[in-house]
Amino acid sequence: MMLEEKVQYPQGIPINVIMSSIEEYPIHYHGNDLELIVVMEGTIKLIIGYRTILLKKGDVFIVNEDELHSMYSGAANKILTIQFDLNFFVQYVESLEFSYMMCETYLDGKKIEDLNITLTSKIQQLIQLYVKKGAGFSKKLTSLSIDLLTYMKSNFEYFSIYENRYFINKLDLKDNPANVTRIWEIYKFIYENYDRKITLQEQAEEKHFSMYYLSHIIKDFIGISFKELLNFSRVEISEKYLLETDMRVSEVALTCGFSATRYYVKAFENWYGQTPEEYRTQRLSHAKAEIKRDVLPLQAILDCISEERTEERYRGNPLLRDFYSKVIPFSGQSARMKKKVNRNNLIFITREWGTSGLIRDSLFDILRSKFEIGVLISTVSGKLQQELSKALEFMDEEHLDKAIYLFNNDKNMQNHINFFETLATMMQFHSPGTKKFTLFIADNSSSPGNFQYLLDYLKQNTPLDDFFSVEPICCENLMLDHDSYVFDSICGTPYLLHDLLRGDKRTICPLVDGESPSADILAGGSGLTAWNGLKKAAYFACLFYAMLGEEVTAENQDYIITRKEDSYQLLFYDYYQEGYKRIKSFTSREEVSGIFEEGVPSSEYIVEINHLRGTYKMTRLKLGDECCLFYKWASMGFPQGLTKSETILLEKSIFPEVTYEVITLEGTTDLFIHLPRFGSELILLEK
């Protein structure tokens, strides 16, 4: 079965235009053609490689030559397809046959918006001429097509792969044409030689560069390493072998240049989230399906384009989004690899944590059920026994069996040893309520040698083992005091969720900020609540995490779906690593409060629910800046103190937006999620 679709161009015209309403268009590719998909009305889902993308009215998508893609929709739509004969246009647009273009951009900034506005305007000029024709039609059409393709190549050719998953139009590559050329030469070389052993050293020697230099060019420009690029290219090429032939997976692996089948399967799963066999089973029937579309008269194109829609009218149009929505298939089935939610994270508290009376509530009981809770204990000069006695009594009262000790830069090791010996002595005579507990020792010093000396001492001093077990932890994951309002605001919540769910090491958070010397409500601390007990956005982010089920059914960088018996929990959060790199240096409250004035785009997801049947109660909890303590405080003008009534009102108004709905699931149901920048949403489905 051949999936290549031969485009039939009108006599003497190197472009083809079709307006249609599409229900299903099976998997195919174009060998020597470039295709533009423009959504005129409605929506359509585009499957291209491992990505499923929802395109809405106003969206333009570029399908490059040889890219496998398909489209389907259950809703009314009008889709404009423009195809260009590359065999003709390569004589006018330099290196067009080696280009890879994309405009499903989601970078922020006016520059990208302007590019989309101009692109849409040029497409409209071309289409109006194509439909109306007139004198000198063929020559004018060719001229407009060359202008459009040149513009696309100049502005949409600079792709980068973000987080090994998302393609973005990285415009800053445009400023270094020499390296862009090198990248495309490497990319072209891979696709022409994928079936044999290819090394970075081979390419470095050919271009007279060091391997180190060439490796950094690839990583900086494309976002992944040479090996990852090679594996991605081979996996992408293997799609055709899986769908067009009956070759065994092992044969496909060798044909595509993998030295062993297991390497191929691992690389395929990394990009597609399933094995090659699963991919073949799932998509083969779709590849063989019939085309279901109604071709509309060309006049229908003009009916969708108003002559009054000038460039100025396009500016700020929400339909011209800077990114694409992500479509997430959800069957409710358990993941093939039985994976559990990471539950080794820790919240630490001090003996003063309940003084405000604002955080001893049922919400904290939920946190406590899914977090390890420990008390922070430390030495106080001249009051060691007294402080330790109070700490042990507090642990008894709160039924805590974990504590944290901060190893600081005290150069006198005897002080630390005295602490542990005193603790062990007191444990011998302490009431039986406190049994053996876990003592986390956090290295908060710049003396790794001294820290190791202390650990060795505790390991060798076996009598101490009778009272507490020692576990060292790294302060890189110890959120003591970041001195940044990013962690006071909602901006830090996606990164907190990401660390809680996917961090290699446990994430350790203080429950309460230390009291601000200036009496400000917030002062850049990393606690889950302010010093007066008012909850920050981070508190609710941890609450969302705690409400997840134990079994993971699907996950990615910015969402996780879990299951508990017949209930499902879907958590989405706006994790954008590049954005965090930009804002994490913000320390002033004015800088952080100004982030949302930039008009950064939000995120959209569509969960495609299949194979779930029955009636479900759906609870949605949405966290955005409008229910964030920091932005309430900012809107009040950053007052230093609060009146009693203001504190009570803030306590009542700071809570995620909650909605309830009863839904009946049958067939396929689409669930729409719209997140503001840095926001998160938890959806609970209970049968």
From TrEMBL:
It comes from the Bacteria. GO terms for molecular function: DNA-binding transcription factor activity; sequence-specific DNA binding. Keywords: DNA-binding, Transcription, Transcription regulation. Transmembrane segments: none annotated. PROSITE patterns: HTH_ARAC_FAMILY_1, HTH_ARAC_FAMILY_2. Residues 184-282 form the HTH araC/xylS-type domain. The keyword Transcription applies. Signal peptide: none annotated. The keyword Repeat does not apply. This is Helix-turn-helix domain-containing protein. It comes from Hominibacterium faecale. The lineage of its organism: Bacteria, Bacillati, Bacillota, Clostridia, Peptostreptococcales.
